């Protein structure tokens, strides 16, 4: 086997939920404050998935206090405790960057049944 492949498989998480673009997810992240550590949830819509393997990332967007907030999460990071899919989205694109220009009901993604 290729050395890079062996090393990358070593750092991948064994069970990852099926997360697609358009899904509404809750990402639980470890936050370190001084000498304390806690878990904080970030809930929003997945607007992009990039790369693959160990370096795979998802971009999650939500509206907080009428301001759009986006965070990029490396899926296989040890700081990611869990990723829960809340609802499945029905989309026809690989990247949903057009949601950045929309507010209110226009920024909603239809639910896949």
Give the second-level CATH assignment, the architecture of the domain at 26-97. Answer: Roll
Give the strand order of the largest sheet, numbering strands 1, 2, ... along the chain: 4-3-2-1-5
| Major sheet details | 5 strands, antiparallel
CATH topology of the domain at 26-97: SH3 type barrels
Helical proportion, percent range: under 10%
Summarize the structure in words.
The chain has 113 residues and is mainly beta. It has a domain at 26-97: SH3 type barrels. 8% of the residues lie in helices and 43% in strands. It has one helix spanning 3-11; strands spanning 24-33, 36-50, 57-64, 67-74, 80-87. The protein has a five-stranded antiparallel β-sheet with strand order 4-3-2-1-5, with no helix packed on it. The model has no long low-confidence stretch (mean pLDDT 93).
Give a brief outline of the structure:
This protein has 113 residues and is mainly beta. Helix content is 8%, strand content 43%. The chain has a domain at 26-97: SH3 type barrels (Roll).
């Amino acid at each position: 086997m290729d050395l890079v492949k062996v090393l990358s498989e070593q750092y991948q998480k064994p069970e990852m939920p099926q997360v697609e673009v358009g899904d509404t997810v809750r990402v639980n992240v470890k936050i370190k404050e001084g000498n304390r550590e806690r878990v904080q949830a970030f809930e929003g819509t997945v607007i992009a998935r990039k790369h693959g393997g160990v370096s795979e990332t998802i971009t999650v967007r939500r509206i907080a206090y009428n301001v759009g907030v986006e965070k990029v999460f490396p899926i296989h990071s040890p700081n990611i405790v869990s990723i829960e899919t809340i609802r499945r989205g029905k989309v026809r694109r690989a990247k949903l960057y057009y949601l950045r220009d929309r507010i209110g009901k226009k920024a909603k993604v239809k639910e896949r049944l």
